[in-house]
Amino acid sequence: MTDETPLVKIHGIKLEGRSDEAWNPIINGVDLTLARGEVLGLIGESGAGKSTLGLAAMGYTRDGVRISDGTVEFDGIDLLTASAATKRDLLGKRIAYVAQSAAASFNPAHKLMDQHVEGPVQHGVNDRGSSEEDGIELYRKLRLPNPDEIGFRYPHQVSGGQLQRAMTAMAMSCRPDLIIFDEPTTALDVTTQIEVLASIRDIVEQYNTAAIYITHDLAVVAQMADRIKVLLKGDEVETADTRTMLSAPTQEYTKSLWAVRSFERPKKPAVSAGAVPVVSVQNVDAAYGKVPVLFDVSFDMHSGRTVAVVGESGSGKSTTARCITGLLPPTTGQITLDGEVLPADYRKRSKDQLRQVQMIYQMADTALNPRMSIGQIIARPVQFYLGLTGAAKRKRVDALLEQIELEPSEYYNRLPSELSGGQKQRIGIARALAAEPKFIICDEVTSALDQLVAEGILRLLARLQDDLSLSYMFITHDLATVRAIADEVVVMKDGRVIEQGDKEEMFRPPHHAYTDLLLSSVPEMDPDWLTNLLAERGVDNIGDAAVDKM
Amino acid sequence: MILWIIAALVGMGALAWGFRFAGQAATGNAPKFRDMPYGVAYGYVLGAVVLLWLIWAYMQGRSSDPAIANKFFFLRIAIEGFIIFAIAAWLFRLLGRAVGTAWSRKMFRSMPLTASFGILTILIYAILAIFAPAFAPYGQEQIIPGVAANIVPGGDVALGGNPDFPLGTDQIGRDIMSRLIYGAQNTVGIAFATTLLAFLLGGTFGFLAATLGGWLDQILSRLVDVLMAIPSLIFALLLMTIASVWAPQLGIPLTVFMVVIIAVIDSTRVFRLARAVGQNIVVMDYIEAAKLRGEGLGYLVFKEILPNATAPLLAEFGLRFCFVFLTIAALSFLGVGIQPPLADWGTMVRDLGGFVNYAQFAPLAATAPLLAAGAIALLTVAVNFVVDWMLHKSSGLKE
Fold it and tell me: Which of A207, A438, B186, B352 has a CA-to-CA distance to A101 between 20 and 30 Å?
């Protein structure tokens, strides 16, 4: 596994990005060495420069980014001064790249196999026939279903997790010495993530390929990497072996990253018997057109408590939220607010009923009008529902901004594009609070955020709940979030409620088989977790297979 | 001839190879020359050859022998015009960078030369159109007594010009310069009003269709499909012919009919754009949030959708203005647009069109119809430059 010369040697690299007519530093002098067959995990928050550094290891920069200093050597070849012909020969053949979104990276007009064989044929590694045979072999090794014929499908005909594995197979097609994985599982469900992680790890091990694995998920990197490098705002924080790093991080920043998952709220007393729930979903069935999507969904939400609704994508979590808000009137069943039945269609609800049910969205980018200032966004519900104008309105908006821990004078006139992701999400919260509601639906509010930022949002939501005795419906697929904030848990699958109850109860075995699969699929910080899990489940029985058997 | 062309192409091929080789040798194999594809090297050589030819042709145009100079007259004018406009645009941008608010100075700093040329040209046209009576030496309908018809532009008495009429006179002795200036008022003013009306119609219905959807969307969209299925110029011509019968009976000026007809035909294109842009915005979460808040249709369209659609609509406004403007000129050229004696560029091209035949031996005489055509072309190019720049800016915002 060790060779005298490292495969990749980056020394003192500095990268700069062009914005506002000036070059601003992205990476300020980072060293990186990678031995043959070694897997290096690169972690950090968004904006830390991990992707930029990963691409620089290929001697490549995105548009508007330049390498201003430092050297990049790959197997003794200086990539920064190498000719275009030399680089063309290396990239794809000896260095490969796996992007975050496989769906966006495949050409939708060509079949998977046609795209798979392009690399080897172009580089003269193999002829078309043997590349196809090799592709099928790789598909089999990556445990794709029907390896013999899956390559002859179009990208939209296979699922997201399968596509990600097909892209890994494509990267392996020339048996490269180095693969850069740029957040390959971030867009996937936990249950799908497991398979992709396991197959990537196996194949990288099998062919002794070196890899740089970029992610912001610590638990994932713990499974994949031999060594971990932590980046913060373009600087290296520390580098160490995975086990050392996990058990004994030396830097404060690394420790804070590790500590995020420890946030948990104290247990609340049980709901008193006979209390009227704030919102109650009663025997709701719903359909998109003629396709039924929800079947007999019922649960209650009480004042000052959080109900977490968990499940994979497509399980009907967001559809339930659409029924509660009235965007999708249920075909049967009803929604009650404070014991009174709400009209099924939001257009038939009174202003006061609309005010009581507010929503916070997953993507703060699309949830805030980019052409309105922060002040305007928050002031609108204040004026619309409470009828405040002029100085009273301004005072209320300032109070709301203070509640979400943003300085009013500084943020009032800014546009959403001038805020960070976490700040945008806080504005979304303020807009919901401005209506003075009793009940707020939080739809995956933290899944687009970095862990430290997400934790800040969770703490804020928890504090607001205690101060204002709000009731939350918390839609999420992340069980760490559930553990942090929920009082009760509802598990959904295929439009049905599989299991529901108190959080303690839900996390304690025995579980329903599906809950068990969900729970056990959440990566843990233990580097042996994936190995143990696979052994427990039996290698052939992961993910898809496990779900299908139920 | 064909052999010559082939020989020249092959010769340039050899030159391109030599150029790249020399570049590599001279710079010690710098990446610029080392990684230069052959096609790029060929492009450099081709560009150099074309530039050399242009310089040669320009010198021919300055030749004292009128037989040779006449052949290259228009090329000479074009090159001189290009250089003058480039310098003017550069100076204008320099001015913009020095004077004005912080915001406007910042805008001029990042502005390409093409955009500053476009803005300068549009400004000049706008000023001329608004203050036409102040700039025009004569009235647009005025037939000056005692002045010959068809005085050649240029003011050179030996070539049939008259210094009092630097751009000459038309077929019945009216001053062409005055008519060009008034033409800016008529043609550009009416085009602007028409485009505005087209946007009012198309934008309103487009956003309504996008927001409400359902049967309203279906009816409006199918109606627009039907209107778009008919070739627009032929359709406009047909309706204008009908209108020219109605107009005197109803006592409404024909121009009003023209504005409405062109606006309705062009509003179909605006409708499609507004609907497509609107549909992309309507699916955003902030629209859903506003709907769930209980907001009315007016708030949704004017406060939430419109501000986010301004960039593509503004760009379309520039392009649409060009099309409307060309349609009006075309209709006038065909005789159903702006009616004489009002000055209009399209009519002017038609009236003096016969002089183009003299281009070979009397280029100045052939310039007469080309002045109005040039005014149309210049404005179209200027508007497109500005639109390109705005599109580029608005797409840059999204990154």
Answer: A207
First CA to last CA distance, chain B: 52
Whether A354 and chain B come into contact, CB under 8 Å, resolves to yes
Reading chain A (550 residues) residue by residue, the pLDDT tens digits are 444 678 888 888 888 887 767 788 888 888 888 888 888 988 887 777 888 888 888 888 888 888 888 888 888 888 888 888 888 888 888 899 988 777 788 888 999 899 988 888 888 888 888 889 989 988 888 878 888 888 888 888 888 778 888 888 888 888 888 999 888 887 777 777 887 888 888 888 888 889 999 888 788 888 888 888 888 888 888 888 888 888 777 888 887 777 666 677 777 777 777 788 888 999 999 888 888 888 999 999 988 889 999 888 778 888 899 999 998 899 998 999 988 888 988 888 998 899 999 999 888 888 898 888 899 999 999 999 988 888 899 999 999 998 888 888 888 888 888 888 888 888 999 999 998 899 999 988 887 777 778 888 888 898 889 888 889 999 987 777 888 888 888 988 888 898 888 887 877 777 777 888 887 887 777 778 888 887 777 654 444 444 443 3
Residue to mutate among B285, B300, B301, with most A CBs inside 10 A, is: B285
Q: What's the one-letter identity of residue B181?
A: I
Q: Which segments of A236-316 does DSSP mark as H helices, in order?
A: 242-247, 252-259
Among B305, B244, B239, which residue's Cα sits nearest to residue B275?
A: B305
**Which tokens is A320 given?**
């339930």
Nearest CB to A359 within list B34, B284, B292: B292
d(CA A87, CA A94): 10
Record: contact B294-A359, CB cut-off 8 A: no
ipTM score of the complex? 0.75
Between the alpha carbon of residue A369 and those of residues A325, A374, A378, A416, A431, the distances in Å are: 20, 9, 11, 8, 12
Q: Which helix (H) or strand (E) holds A300?
A: strand A291-301
How far is it, in rounded angstroms, from Cα B378 to Cα B373?
Answer: 9
Residues of A in contact with B291 (CB under 8 A): 327, 346
Q: Beta partners for A467?
A: none
Q: Are strands A488-493 and A306-310 parallel, antiparallel or unpaired?
A: parallel
Residues 428-467 of A with CB under 8 A from B: 431, 435
Measure A81 CA to nearest chain B CA, in Å.
8
Range A84-88, long-range pairs (CB < 8 A, 24+ positions): A84/B31, A84/B34, A84/B35, A85/B35, A87/A59
CA nearest A375: which of A425, A405, A415? A415
Residues of B in contact with A367 (CB under 8 A): 284-286, 289
Residue of chain B whose alpha carbon sits nearest to that of A21: B110
